[in-house]
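chain below, 396 aa
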Amino acid sequence: MLDADRSLRHPRALELPRADGSLYVYKPGVGGAFASRAVPAMSRIAIAAVHVVADPHAPNGPRDPVRLDWEATMAYRRHMWSYGVGVAEGMDTAQRGMGLGWPVASELIERSITEARNAGGLVVCGAGTDQLELGSARNLDEVEEAYAEQCQFIESRGGRVVLMASRELARIATRPDDYARVYGRVLGSLDRPAVIHWLGDMFDPELHGYWGHEDVDLAMDVCVDVMSEHRAKVDGVKISLLDASREVTMRRRLPDGVRMYTGDDFNFTEMIAGDDLGHSDALLGILDAIAPAAAAALMALDAGDVERYRAILAPSVPLSRHIFAAPTRFYKTGIVFMAYLNGHQSRFKMVSGLERSRSAVHLSEVFVLADKAGLLRDPESAADRMRAFLALSGVA
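prediction:
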């Protein structure tokens, strides 16, 4: 007991909970030393799917209107750009489909495009069909019209489109040709090439059987055929299947000039490094939390130092695997918790109360793994915030 008491006298030491209900003393390190670099990497494109900051003073139930802390939300985008990392706006990390609907998402997208223009940062924007109530689309025409409305909104503001997977398309499509028809018509209407986002059902169960097949390899055939037929309107594809072998297989099948943007938050280090036959760029949710380390690693990769690239990113992999652990769709909670620990928002609060989707034990491990990865920019302040969170969680 005396040793534990002495350990807790350290300004950063605190007691964290285990799954069995016991507590243990943990003392964070001295913090990361990753310098900001506003210049993007040259060897790879790195884009973070970023979260939103809920208004800490607004009602926050699942049925309450969504209110954002706009200044904190935009400041976080500027934080990404300060490390040379691009922003993917209005994606699933921003709780599209899990609290954030199109009315607020459209304002978010418009604000971010303006901020990006002022900051000289890269931004791409998610276009979907979520202005349609789930179960309301009567036919493929209505799905196409919903996609077209969001795409036109984004392009009219000077933005670039990421075509997100559509729950309504997954619900009413009866065959692969239905996907080919909808994507073909939507892509054909665009002014600029888009990124296609294939989101696996581990992220959203409503997307099971996307591209008209439950078999992932057959689904891949459909997606590749769509991109081949509309090559001029496709910048790349982001796949979020958490399956490294399938990403590599698809990467090798892409039409010339079409990029693979890894969405594999488990195996991103290897996907970005690539092999003799190619590499993946990155459009990742975990980049929201690890941008400082990722920017430093990509700087090493630009210099041809693959060993240093791996050494910098390796400690962030356990953190990412933990944040994206099943049920994977709740990864946003760990992402926002990291922002809270690092002082990017005043309270640990999420749209629709999603902060309650992960346990105090889970989030305590986020704290530990972030510290070990050097991703707590001020460990003493982070420890204070961790203590406040634990007190509110009833952990004493």
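Residues 33-354 form a domain with the TIM Barrel fold (CATH 3.20.20.70). The chain has one domain: 33-354.
thats it, cya
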